[in-house]
Amino acid sequence: MNHEKKEIVYLKADEQSLLFFQALANKNRLDIIRLLKKNEASITELSQALGLSTALITKHIQFLEEAGIVKSYTNPGKRGLKKLCYLALNEAQIIFNNDYQEITRSFEEVEIPISAYSDYDIAAPCGLATEDKVFGNIDNPRYFSAVNRYSVSLLWFSSGYITYPIPLMDVDLERTEEIEISLEICSEHPGFNSSWKSDIQFQMNGVNLGMWTSPADFGDRKGRYTPAWWTLGTEYGLLKTLLINEEGTFMDGTQIGATPLSKILENRKDKDQLTFTISTYPKDGHYGGINLFGRHFGDYNQPIIFRFYYRRANPQRSIQSSSITE
User: What is the pTM of this model?
Assistant: First the structure.
């Protein structure tokens, strides 16, 4: 199972990080981390593996959760809900430099709800859903134009494109050296299909960033945030991260495009915004389709997140965040 996980967490050697260090100062908790490196596990499974009571394991998990090392979620079990635990990060680095905050690379974050697109051209099968119900009629593309679609938390289509405007009011584009885009996405197939691949293209300002092939339309289990009423197939996607810089575009660290960021930014038509387009066009009637997840659906409770990383930090300015509210 894929989880939202921090690759690296940075810790200063001060009292604010004391809880993290205390969490590691216990052999049983280190043993729990060792087991969770391999696979997620329930309280009972950890108890059996370590020969400790479930009550003691529960206390250790609570300590690790408070420190941000472990996260958990619940899944239906044979006798009610079962708590499953997993590691919340891959790496931790300790910073001894007292001026670390002043040299940290700053960024501006912009959140875009999946309902905030400005243009689209899509084909059925397609549809929209809110946290509470299906929005409009399934397989009718005209509902994508509804002005009251602000509450949409899941959208899907089999072919076409959808474009999002990215406002730049709080972004210093002149100092931006990298743009990071985070979104939950997967293929689309009627119901779901665990082997249905989809070639998905990404563009910014009309410039092709590259293509990623989604491995499946995932419906084999309930999404962590997918509402209980949803029974139409697709349950969750994969959290993918695009990074655009002068070397090109990278998807989770793998290069998928070579156009430099400076060329992409030069191509914008509106000085106050960028555009981001996601598209899919099936080949030979086989590959295609997109499911795009927002808050309250899938495995990651988030909209599309854009981060603009700056060349040098400004000690006088803390990291800011702006968003378009759903």
Answer: 0.67
